[in-house]
Amino acid sequence: MPELPEVETVRRTLEPLLLGRRISRILLARRDIVSGPARSANLLLQHTITALERKGKQLAILARPEHDPHAQDEQRESRGQRESRDLRALVIHLGMTGQLLFLAPRAQPPQSDHIHATWTIAGTGPRALGTLLFRDPRRFGGLFPYPSRAALEKAWSALGPDALEPPPHDHPSLARLWRSRRAIKAALLDQSCIAGVGNIYADEALFLARVHPPRPAARLSAGERVAILNAIRDVMRLSLRSGGSTLRDYRNASGAPGDFQSRHQVYGRGGEPCRRCGQLLSSKTLAQRTTVWCPNCQPRRGSP
DNA sequence: CGGTACGCCTGAAGGC
DNA sequence: TGCCTTCAGGCGTACC
Questions:
Q1: What pTM does this model have?
Q2: Protein-proximal positions, strand B, CB < 7 A
């Protein structure tokens, strides 16, 4: 399930393939995967891609419309036409099982079912460079068009600081996090507190920080707060170096799986021995999510 | 407003 | 073998 390191890996693999390229054709097999404020917008057809950006688990393709060669008289452009030349954005959520795959012309995807959208990427000559596929069997993901960069940034301002960045300790979202009486595990899954942490990396980060997942966020010491924020960034960076975690579905844009799952300390290992101390790992449902921790390394009360 | 419960959706895995 | 149940979980919505 794609969390921040997986989405960032996709972004990095796609960026060199897409920057400066024009989208010449779009095939939308399922209209209902498109939502958001501009759900009727075209999905960057005849736009040239200028950037791939990410915040938390969200990936955005930024693109500029092609000039209409027939609209030579700039003075007579309507307001709508001028706005249409602004940078637009298409946000892609991968949800649980979403994949963005880049394929060379005529190449067949390893699994061709549940492909909901296909973008044809124009090359420099008459032939296409390839196609970008959005595949998502479970359809927890989706496409969210925004009419401008400002609209995208407004939407992204609802997210907390990105988990890969150095923790901005004075950020208002973090101040809210440390006031919360929720279990720290539940709070870490809230994208408006910190953006990019999902169930895997919440458990992994709390293990690294040696914090018991059910403890209320507001009861953590200053040292524990710092340890958690640093652990989140560390685990994200480590996972990114392995190309993310592949449990089942996740692949990068070239179809390659990640490797970080082999280095998970706690996620998916309930009942198995802790890799640090050998104690059997505990597991229970917390905030509707399976949560795994080491009762010895992450005691109920913080370390003295 | 803070917090919780639930539904969406498909495929893998396990029980019988 | 095959049918059934359970589980996985990001996120929007409903609700207290």
A1: 0.91
A2: 2-12
